[in-house]
Amino acid sequence: MSTFQGLSVALSSLQSQRRAMDVAGQNIANAATPGYTRQRADLVSQAGPVNPISNVRGWTTGNGVAVADITRLTDRLASSRVEITTADAALASTRSGVLDAVQAGFNEPGDTGLQHKLGQMWTAWSALGDQDPLGTGGAAARVTVAGRSEEVAATLREGAAQTAATWGDVRAELGTLETSVNSIATSVADYNRLITITETTGATAHELADQRDQLVRQLSQLVGATSRPRPDGGVDVLVGGEALVTGAVARQVAVAGPLAMGGAATGPTTVTFADTGATAAVGGAAAALTEALTTTIPGVMAGYDRVAQSVATRVNAAHGDPAVFTAAGGGPVTAANVTASIAPSDIRAGTGGRGVEVADAVAALAEDPTGPDGQWRTFVIGVAGAASAAEVRATATQTNSDAARGALVASTAVDVDSEMVDLLTYQRAYEGAARVLTTVDQMLDTLINRTGVVGR
To answer: Where do the Flagellar basal-body/hook protein C-terminal domain residues begin and end (predicted)?
Structure first.
């Protein structure tokens, strides 16, 4: 190795070790930064000069070291698993939240729940049968029957109103989700553009890639998005297999469907691609919200309607004319319009002005397994079972998501102890290169300033 080649070797080491120390320092500085992916300086040895005459290297040594690249130590498989499990956890959690909100509106068990109100109404009818229908006690009992009946109707109307309000809240949440998805998709496309431009110049854009990947995971949570790497350093983002983001171009989504609940027959709500109107096969929270708007909450409203119709049909059939329960404004009875506006004087305890067979027949509905009580219990138990199963599913999927995130962190996060060891290694190599440079300088000084002057 020539003296000047020695200078070149020492210089390459100084430059490379310094850059490697910079990378280690960046890792240590971001050890606690959420979403940061560890980086590594890839050092490669430099080949020595070729003999220009024989075209062989002969005894020449190498020409030092260089930083071939700064590698971002991402784990593509672990990242993909995080995207998938994040979408599953968001879907299960949102579904569980909707069912919890619906179940809370039942107020069961409790004094304000429909089960209690029905029990009070049956008791009032039974008390009417125990009174002298034509005496003073009978008149008071009729007032109680009318009042308890209206309380049942009011409870059904309140349940229907709460269900419609829950539907409206979910619809508003889906609208907010639409805005968030469009904003995040645009940001991902912007990051793709910046990353491509940066890497085209030969610089690294690893920090930009970290921030972009966090946004992609937000899209996974919202609409079940997955990502696919591009050769230019960007990613394509897919929703249900169709592109939401392609390189630096982002599409927009829109929510299609009714803006207000139309009873149990509410039309379907879907998330579509705004440019084509095609339905997007969304996952994540969006899938649970559209399911709630189209199936879950209308199903709950249908359950309320069935109970309201059962109350009206069974009580009216036992009582006869005039009807105890009717639909406000006319038409079929539903939970939203049921009312018991009958006058106390029109309530009959028996037929022909005497007897208590009517009151007893209505009171007996409390024990009928196919009557309103039985239908309400079956309905409430069904929703409670679905809510319980959804909660179990939410817990399981969240555990799975946490495990996936843990695996990703284990493979990509900064290990400060390891970085300190690397930093010490680079520091010692830097000191050694500096010593080589000093030694070569001394050799050159001897050759230039002392050769031929020995003994003078």
So the answer is: 411-449
Please report how many Cα atoms fall inside a 13 Å half-sphere around the Cα of residue 102, on the Cβ side. 33
> How many structural domains compose the chain?
2
CA contacts within 13 A on the Cβ side of 276: 8
Is the whole-model pTM more than 0.70?
Answer: yes
The C-alpha atoms of residue 9 and residue 79 are separated, in whole angstroms, by 40
Gyration radius of the chain over CA positions = 38
Residues 6+ apart with CB under 8 A from 179: none
Q: What is the DSSP string of 355-402?
A: -SHHHHHHHHGGG-TTSHHHHHHHHHHHHHHHHHHHHHHHHHHHHHHH
Write out the residue range of the structural domain in which residue 318 sits: 80-407
Residue 90 contacts residue 286 (beta carbons within 8 Å): no
pLDDT tens for 58-86 read 556 778 899 999 999 999 999 999 999 99
Query: What would the pLDDT profile of 140-194 be if each residue is shown by its tens digit?
Result: 889 999 999 999 999 999 999 999 999 999 999 999 999 999 999 999 999 999 9
Question: In this structure, is residue 424 part of a structural domain?
Answer: yes
Domain assignment present for residue 326? The answer is yes
pLDDT tens, 386-424?
999 999 999 999 999 999 999 999 999 999 999 999 999
219 vs 284: CA distance, rounded Å: 9
